[in-house]
Structures are given as C-alpha cells and as structure tokens.
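# nightly structure sweep
# worker-07 picked up a monomer target from the shared queue
# config: single-sequence mode, recycle default, output format = structure tokens
# input follows
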Amino acid sequence: MGNMEPLDLTGNEKSLVILQSLLCLLREKNLLSRADIEDLADKVAARAADQAHDPMPCPNNAALAAKSEMDRIGSYIGTRYGGKHRRV
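# output follows
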C-alpha cells in the first residue's frame, strides 16, 4: 500500500462530510424518511430566508450555502433511496 497524502480539510469541510454521511446512513437504515429530510431542508431554508429572527444567528453566506447543500443532499438521498414525499 502506498502512502496517502493527508487531506487538508477545514473544520467545516470535515463536519460536512460527517453530516452528509450521517444523513445517508440514517436514511439507509430507515431511521429518517424522505419527508424528514424535506422538513429539515425547509428548516434550513427558513433560517437562510429570515436571518433577523434566527434564534441561532450565523453569517448570511453560511446560511445560504447550507440551504444549497441541503437541497443537494435531499436530491441525492431522494434519488438514491427513494421513499415517499411528505404530505402537503
């Protein structure tokens, strides 16, 4: 086995990899439904849309990036694992 170069990831990037993997694992084990992931994406979007009333303030660019990432994760998980959308 050859030596691998260590990855130079920031704390945020490391956390993102862990959280993405956790969401996929929970969905794979049916502990999260597709509807749960859609609800989570809506909560993230609401935080990004209303920074003034966010109980846990974060920089606006971080909230918008989180919304974009949740949309991407939700799309991937929905395609990969399927499941029912939430009832509207």
